Amino acid sequence: MGTEGDSFPLMEVNTGDPEASEPWDYVLVADRRGQRATRQAHRQLQFLEELKRKGFRYKMMEDGEKVFFGIRAESRIFDLYRTLLMESEGPGSRTQPAGPAPIPASTRIRIVNFVLNNTTAAGDTLDDLVKSGVFETRFVLHKGQDDLRKEWAQWRRVLRPQPIDDIRDYFGEKVALYFAWLGWYTYMLVPAAAVGLLVFLSGFALFNASQISKEICEAHDILLCPRGDHSRRYQQLSDTCTFAKLTHLFDNEGTVVFAIFMALWATVFLEIWKRQRARVVLHWDLYGWDEDQEEMALQLINHRDYQLRPHQHSYLRSSVILILSVLMICLMIGMAHLLVVYRVLAAALFNSTLLFQEEQVTTAVVVTGALFHYVVILIMTKVNKCVALKLCDFEKPRTFSERESKFTTKFFTLQFFAHFSSLIYIAFILGRINGHPGKSVRLAGLWKLEECHLSGCMMDLFLQMAIIMGLKQTLSNCAEYLGPWLAYKCRLMRFKLGRASGDPELRDMQHNYLLNPVNTFSLFDEFMEMMIQYGFTTIFVAAFPLAPLLALISNLVEIRLDAIKMVRLQRRLVPRKAKDIGTWLQVLETIGVLAVIANGMVIAFTSEFIPRVVYKYHYGPCRLGAQPAVDCLTGYVNHSLSVFYTKDFQDPVQAEGSENITECRYRDYRDTQDYSLSEQFWVLLAIRLLFLILFEHVALCIKLIAAWFVPDVPQSVKNKVLEEKYRALRDKMCSSSKSTDV
Asked: Which residues form the Anoctamin transmembrane domain (predicted)?
């Protein structure tokens, strides 16, 4: 390695290997200044010599600032892998091949990456050496990606099918299954987006024909009670005419049908995806592949004396993890309460500083509250990831795949509450604990709690969903693309101003070094982003029927964005083998069940669907039978507003014009004498609960029937597997008969 201060000559170890002309499997990079430290150089040499003993050769090349080590494994490592897993690649590989098949590049990289990351020299792993600065980084070279650049990683290919087999050959099965799932999810969003858009546009057809909107727009003589503390102006109900019409776009009779449709859609989407996955896995000859067997084989390749690590379970550790997880969930719920505090204080501030007109204050609070929630989500995402990692380390999973599965469950649970806790508050709590005019519930005894929008709580939920989902899709996609692109361009410009090698091999390593780094979470983050989007697309979709359309547009961009990022802007991901999307499938099924419950509760408790139906058949003019000349909802607006007498205000002097007004109206079902909850409120509550139970049972039954009706595995796949098993047994029987005859 030379003495301190020496420069390193261009050298190659084991140059006599017949594979010397082949590309490198892996590249390690060290800072040239670090080579001058004797201890650093000694640790580096120890690690490289340990790799050499395991059957690797390496070549060291340097430019002005960096030292690059090309790593390549000898063929005997892959011969051992082929021997150990000869019959684990699936039914199609059970017959003995005529000769040794070449090891795919993705398999080579996966094996080399495993051995490198599990190699220990003088007690130091590769991660330890990177953290201590012995090596700066490590990566896999991009080689042979030209076809993917032309056919996949281009914006003009946005509507073309994805080359899943080529993606698998280059990035491995894990990445290929992600894009196969994302492509199928995007394809299935087309009918959901079409139905959601139809439900939304059907509201336009009745934009001016709705009886409720007509009554609100003509209610010039109905005054709404003052809502704020600082401005006590009585507002005409007709002032909310525009918002009443807009609310009817997504709070109409089609909402219930669309919610049931989305429950069925989510089930059909998952069931058909399982069938798609089975076909793809059989095509890849991985139907019988076992992940545990693969990991044990890699451990044996790395250490011949590897001892099996058995499964373990500790009730103490599980209890501690459960308690800590509950505390973190409580923190997420606390973040929702922080949003409540913000909205209350913002309402008081906007009213007092004259930044907005009084009728604009509620809308301003909703919009800024959604922006505040988006910022909280960004912060808590980083916190949740750190907490989930610490909990996984404490649990001590047996293998990397088990660790990934446990981390997925913990991180998604925390992220779910971070994203949806404020929506739960708006949908089911906002405006329901405020009391009534003259006796309002106050925060810390000072500030009046926020109320729903004048047109109803569905408008608050719609705006919150639209803003958060719009920001998450647009800003996240822009940051996801522009961030790596700008970082790569800046590094490239600095490099061109500095040094450039004439050696094509070294130049290739330099180019890959300048690309954006990748890590274990690179693909995980893409999956998590899609799971959260799937949650927004299905949960609370009754309040925001345009969610599938936004998700469809976003996914068309996301597929090509991820492709360009992986092929052009990032270092090559280490290929990983898989035959399904793992724990994410259980996450999708859980979201589907939560969507049924949430949408049922939105229709029952947040929308005006149940009060309208009850009025139509129990209180309205059609309660004794249909009357063609009269709309069945005539009088509903007056029926749904309670009366408050201005003399009962605690501070009537502050109310503007109170000397000429004797009563005002507010949204609730209360008695006019003592303002207690009226009989109509309890009748509505009972019917709401009954509807919720019926809706959930019907929707869940539809999901179960759809899941039973669509088999997870196509019969053609089952028959193919059966034929392969039968052929293998016949071959063994024939071989046995021949040996007996001899």
From this structure: 167-723
